[in-house]
Amino acid sequence: MVRIGRKTAVGGVAAVLLVGGGVAYAATTGVVATCTTNPAVTRTATSQSFNVSCSVPLPPPVTVTRTVTQTVTRTVTAAAPAPTTTTGPSPATVTATAATTPTSSACSTKWTSSAPNGSWTDSGHLVNNNMWNSAAGPQTISACSWQQWSITSNQPGTGSDDSVKTYADTQTHVSYPLSGLSTLPSTFDVTTPAGGGTVPASGKQWNAAYDLWLDNYGTEVMIWNNWTMNWQYWFKQYGGVQVTIDGVAYHAYRNSAGTGLWFIRDQVTNTGSVDIAHVLQWAVNKGWLRSSQVLGEVEYGFEVAYTGAPTVFTLNKFTL
Fold this sequence. Notes:
By secondary structure, the protein is mainly β. It is built from 3 helices and 19 strands.
């Protein structure tokens, strides 16, 4: 406790006035209380008491300044940003590589048919279900365009040397005399069952091929790019030859009537290109075709002889 005020003599006794409530204030601010005693004194045998009144001036206004430092840690979960390539002065360079979209990506179906002679015209081209053999089993075609379609085909048979039942295809009508036809490039991209390039003892039989018609369907020329059907017998039967055209090796043969020619690709593929004119001009030079003949139809599709179960064949992209 701190003493403040003044000494007061009461009846010869010295008294020190103590003000408890103002102790901290007086001690910290240096302000002194002014006190007075009441003249009335109460005495007893052992003590005396008196009243004291003190006045304390109010302290000046106090301004308090407080500085608060606060650290906030926040976790944000957000969607991953699009792939970017970061360059510049930063110590690291990040390069993002986009995923390759499969060629056979889904498309919007514009036409479908299970009819044997179902046909659809798109941009001047025909898309045909073409179940031309009366022994054909069920087949459904679904097309997004003349360049992109697929079939689900279920063809009966023994699984060995069965006859062709269907040839779903894209068909383009042209009129090109071979005498003036020097180039006719085309590309293809298809998806087929496994096993292409070999003839199974018993199994699915099919090919993915161009089918070319000359002289109003009088002469047929086929170019097989992938296959499981037996062509070797006919190659030997007709005395076929091996030939390389534009770097691609084929086994080629012509029937005895001269109305059918086949070019069987040695190294099968589902994606590639063919300059159709170069194949036809080789046949002209070989004497299998005449320069006076006229190419009238260019088709690409799948010949199916046997599947044994519903089987999908897809034309992912075709150009002509």
